[in-house]
UniProtKB/TrEMBL annotation, chains A, B:
Protein name per UniProt: Peptidase
Any one Gene Ontology BP term: proteolysis involved in protein catabolic process
Pfam families xrefs: Proteasome
Gene3D superfamilies: Glutamine Phosphoribosylpyrophosphate, subunit 1, domain 1
GO cellular component entries: proteasome core complex
Highest rank taxon of the organism: Bacteria
Length: 258, 258
């Protein structure tokens, strides 16, 4: 499994991906799922992938070799695309081609999963960062203000904290913290999602990204997991126990503290 | 969608199910998914179901008419089964039959989901309650001490709180509170799971259950949702912001509070 999340707040873009790859639970390895393109000091583009590793690699290969777009005889590259929207179109087109490549090989054999979903984010010429979710069919949607995040992969365990905590005005460092809690909740419930975490941060007005790999021994991440677990326990204990009737009791104590 | 959860702690059994049924998001109604059998003052058996409503109703009909078990010419009933284990076997056999009934009708038409998963819990003659999860194929597993809960349906959103908070020694009222937080997290993230919640509580030594329907205007449930949301916000704010480098900064403030 994989879990990737992208947060787009007023102060910037945060993209995170775990690095665990598994073909069955007895074949686990570490693989980078957050790729960076076009770091020329003027643009920064990142792609995070969930799904088939072979389809992803076929797609990345197409991006490196250039993608033939409808109506243009010359191949196009992420390194020279004029806008993030064009970047998303190029990646979508590469997705369609990569899927065809792989389908030609596997020929609809049962149980072969070749689907991929991507997050594509970044900024060109220091403009406000943008974030897209590319579906397995090559079409895509852009992240907006109302729900300022996208997830791909094993998304449900880490979604409640995003829904409850995040909005477009959330400060950047707090957004990073929320994304890490979301990662932590996912890793606790699904062994297929694991450390290290790759993180990329882009800010408006800056044409280089901060890329960080959060390893097993990262003190902040370790403390975050422990503090969050302890805080949840306290939060639960501070809510009164319910007084619904139990068998053999007419009614329970009202608002008894546990 | 549906979310049902069963908790088996030392002080008793808690079963909960939401009541929202939908055939598409534009066809939503309220349907009881937690059924009670054999309330004769000596036994209490409850079944919570997730999946196809037509398969579930075919299965319940079989339970009412009696289930032919291998090696017995007489039909068997939940109302007279000697043990909870036999109850689980009878329900499993009814599952196999119900699935065949429905398959004969729908004939593998694409897109017709006929699968059902069940929680079966209860107590006979005041003995310690037991809890089973019945798979769609009719086989089943029993809940044990190490992970004292089962879920069926839309389970991922509400699983982290169970994994973090619940163990076999958790007091009964606190277990109810944890199950309600799990329900609340699920309802917040999936509109297909909705109020009212049906709850059943069984205690060792008591042969009647407490059955409660928690409606939209239930003051405890309303406060629980609000308190939990506020406590999570506080918990997050009390964790220092991360000091990972940001673009344009060599390093961030160390342990800055948000």
């Amino acid at each position: 499994m994989t879990y990737c999340v992208g947060l787009l707040v007023k102060e910037g873009l945060v993209m995170m991906a775990d690095t665990r790859t598994n073909a069955g639970i007895d074949n686990i390895s570490t693989y980078r799922k957050l790729r960076v393109f076009g770091e020329d000091g003027k643009r920064i583009i990142s792609i995070a992938s969930a799904g088939s590793l072979s389809t992803t690699q076929a797609l990345v290969n197409r991006l490196h070799e250039g993608v033939k777009m409808p109506g243009n005889d010359e191949p196009e590259f992420l390194e020279t695309a004029p806008t993030m929207f064009r970047v998303a179109q190029i990646v979508g087109e590469a997705m369609v081609g990569a899927k065809k490549d792989i389908e030609a090989v596997v020929q609809q054999q049962e149980g072969v999963e070749i689907g991929v979903t991507l997050l594509v984010g970044g900024s060109i010429d220091g403009r406000a960062p943008r974030l897209f979710l590319i579906y397995g069919e090559g079409n895509f949607i852009e992240c907006g203000l109302d729900t300022p995040y996208f997830q791909v992969g094993e998304l449900k365990y880490g979604k409640p904290v995003l829904d409850r905590m995040l909005d477009y005005r959330t400060p950047l460092r707090k957004a990073i913290k929320i994304a890490l809690v979301s990662m932590n909740s996912t890793m606790r419930s699904n062994l297929g999602v694991g450390l290290p975490i790759d993180m990329l941060v882009v800010r408006p007005g800056h044409s280089t990204a901060a890329v960080t790999r959060i390893e097993e021994n990262d003190p902040y991440y370790h403390d975050l997991g422990a503090s969050w677990a302890a805080a949840l326990k306290d939060a639960l204990n501070n809510i009164p126990d319910p007084a619904y009737p139990l068998p053999g009791e007419d009614s329970g104590p009202v608002a008894a503290k546990s």
